[in-house]
Amino acid sequence: MSDKLIVFDLDGTLLDTSNDLLDCVNHCLLSVDLKPVVYEDLTFLVGQGARAMITRAFELNKAELTEDELDRLFDLFIDYYTAHMPGTSKAYPGLMDAIARLTAAGYRHAVCTNKHEGMARKLLDLLSLSDHFAAITGGNTYPYRKPDARHLLNTIELAGGTPERAIMIGDSKNDIYAAHNANVASIAVSFGFSDVPVDTLNPDVVINNYGELTVELADQLLK
Question: Would you call 82 helix, strand, or coil by DSSP?
Fold first, then answer.
């Protein structure tokens, strides 16, 4: 078994889920007669799971949100998302070619996302991607989540890897800070949902597309 491991974030890194996430949030907002959010709001909304998305959407509307209402809207979000998966979500261009060449070079792969684990697994199953990953963990898998280092470190361990032989790939501060906190090499993608330019997060490398995720680049980060 290879000890070289690539750990991917999900939303905005592996998969473009933007339209489906917006649809779910707006379904919740419309149920309480609030203004829908738009694509430009995604960088503010995404990153800490559905509850945070709903809460932040209410903030954008300058509307109050009680805990009971949040619980109800969270259930509505999950029900709607589940009923419409996989929707228009799809792998980013070049991803599968990158996974194939890295696998051929002895790399294994895992997913570490703040999305609910059950939702992440179902989405990957529906897109026939789950078999590519030795481990899939979500925001509810452990009592902590990215940027907490333990989320990433436990994912690496579950996948049979070690921190010094692993690379975290993500699109936001949660991913890159988790890598920093875990002392794991990091690659930021520039095409995701980050609310700041990803180079300001100080990843080891920034890539603009999966054609740039080469075996040579990954090997250099593990030296």
Answer: helix
The pTM of this model reads: 0.90
* 214 burial type by CB count under 10 A (0-12 exposed, 13-18 middle, 19+ buried): middle
pLDDT tens across the length of the chain (223 residues): 568 999 999 999 999 999 999 999 999 999 999 999 998 888 888 867 788 899 999 999 999 999 999 999 999 999 999 999 999 999 999 999 999 999 999 999 999 999 989 999 999 999 999 999 999 999 999 999 999 999 999 999 999 999 999 999 999 999 999 999 999 999 999 999 888 899 999 999 999 999 999 999 999 999 7
Last residue of a domain, one of 38, 54, 84: 84
Catalytic: which of 9, 16, 171, 175? 9
Task: Give yes or no: 20 in active site.
Answer: no
Structure tokens at 6: 């690539």
Question: Cα 204 from chain centroid?
Answer: 18
CATH number at residue 73: 1.10.150.240
* Residue 12 shares a structural domain with residue 22: no
